[in-house]
Amino acid sequence: MIEAKSLCKSYGHFKAVDDLSFQVESGQVLGFLGPNGAGKSTTMKMLTGFLAPTSGTALINGVDVVESSVAARKNIGYLPEGAPSYGEMTVKQFLTFVARARLIEKSDVPASVDSAIIKLNLSGVKHQAIETLSKGFKRRVGLAQAIIHDPQILILDEPTDGLDPNQKREVRGLIRAMAEDKIIIISTHILEEVAAVCNRVMIIAEGRLLADDSPQGLIARSRYHNAVSLVVETPEKVASTLGVLPQVGKVEIREGELTLFPTGETGLLEAVTAAISENQWRVSALRLEAGRMDEVFHNITCTEASA
Amino acid sequence: MNGAINVMQRELTGYFETPVAYVFLIIFLAMTGIFTFYLGNFYERGFADLDSFFRFHPWLYLFLVPAISMRLWAEERRSGTIELLLTLPLTTRQAVLGKFLAAWLFIGLALVLTLPMWFTVNYLGSPDNGVILAAYLGSWLMAGGFLAIGSCMSALTRNQVVAFILSIVVCFLFLLSGLPMVMNLFNGWAPQIVLDGIASLSFLQHFADITKGVIDLRDLVYFALVITFWLLANVLILDIKKAD
After folding, report:
1. Which residue of B has its CA nearest to A65?
2. Which of A165, A292, B98, B149 is the most exposed place for a label (fewest CB within 10 A)?
3. CATH code, domain with A76
């Protein structure tokens, strides 16, 4: 379990992280979501013992990261931003170094290295110098070193940044596969990633915690949540007809697409479909909106941060 | 200690996976040869000793050791691996010590590769081998002093060139601290005790003592203290300024 207690980090007058407290339990995949420079990386650096907090502390499985930094690090696997590694070493040499540094029993080192290589699909390149590998492979090497000691806590700083869509998918799959009995914290500014891998999201901006919710919970905050969008030939006419339904609140027409926002009453979609078949409109698209993450993110980070 | 040894092994692997090691060794051997035979007049002197070989070591180290030490921490900062290294379960001291030991052993290897020089002088005459052994030890200790300074300077910056120049300047001051060009800065205003203190910091003086074949405990302690001081400063700098 991770327990952050009033973590603060300032550089001069600039507060990178401002009084951040939270707890993470086993089985949670927590996403730090926030604009660039929000304090996500700084928070991770404090949790992993790289940076000392200006004030406050964090407990990693009950061990204080400030007082017993080295002991606290033993439970953590960490992928720093950009997945740095020693480029001149081969994948195998590098992982062997990390395995030893991670205090794995000497006799178990080769087995842990091999198992990390297999998990991350690195068998084909294990004797290649890391600097000669593609970005995707480098990222996988970074992940391999983070999981080599099978840590209970994984902290991954922008694990999919700079990868192509297939590689992103692959990395997300890996994260989900490991999630069950671990604590995983990832940071990202990619909204879709949060919905894809996390079961909890913390939105951070200007060093402060602005929202702490499940991805579904966040999406439900969108004004589009449960709205119905449809594309018809004569949106204005349809809008005026549908606008009088008790389930329909606001009506918006944008680029030929008509969006109906719900009121407190349920059954908006049913009412709309009934109206469509009754009036025999030719509808080329109809969908129930789940909510829009980008809108929620924008509202939370731009309005609350400046307030 | 295991942590430091692991870091040391990694560093040593790193040296030999890149051209750094080979370029350094070749240049070091070529330069010692040139200095000994041309500037040192090895043959013409007519003595069976290695004085003309060891005499140039301080000056050689002044440029070659910072070339080794400049990458120690600056490169870790530039590539971001410092974040990886210092979040492993090892102390900053272990990391500093491991890196230092690797570089020191590497310079030791360079010295070992000059042994043909020793064989040559034994072939040509009958030198005092005890003196030569002491001089080798003194040379290696002095290299350690330069290296500790260089390692500390390297931790200050992410730019290897800056680290290189800073190291040369500080090493130069230490090298010459007994000579007039440094002493004149302090003469006339600093009390005698300070002047003596500065003069006693000179690498040259302590190295010269050892190369005479007299291994005085004070000279050994001196180099041990210099190395310890700069490595502790190195640890302190890293702890204060980990990220840029």
Report:
1. B87
2. A165
3. 3.40.50.300
Taking the C-alpha atoms of residue A43 and residue A4, their distance in angstroms, rounded to an integer, is 9
C-alpha distance across the termini of chain A, in Å: 32
Contact call for A48 and B18, based on CB within 8 A = no
CB contact under 8 Å between A82 and B86, yes or no, is no
**Domain range for A274:** 228-289
Q: What tokens were used for A301? A: 């980070």
pTM: 0.88
Which of B7, B82, B88 best tests the A interface by mutation, with the highest count of A CBs <10 A? Answer: B88
Q: Using the beta-carbon criterion (under 8 Å), do A100 and B6 form an inter-chain contact?
A: yes
Asked if the C-beta of A231 comes within 8 angstroms of chain B's C-beta atoms, the answer is no
Neighbour count for residue B140 (Cβ, 10 Å): 18
Based on the fold, state whether residues A197 and A65 are members of the same structural domain: yes
Do both A80 and A179 map to the same domain? yes
Q: Report the gap between the CA of A217 and the closest CA in chain B (Å).
A: 34
Cβ count within 10 A of residue B233: 18
Same domain, A60 and A126: yes
Counting every residue written for chain B, the total comes to 244
Which ipTM did the prediction report? 0.88
Q: Outline where DSSP puts E strands in chain B.
A: none
Q: How many CB atoms lie within 10 A of CB A231?
A: 15
- Distance (Å) from the alpha carbon of B157 to chain A's nearest alpha carbon: 17
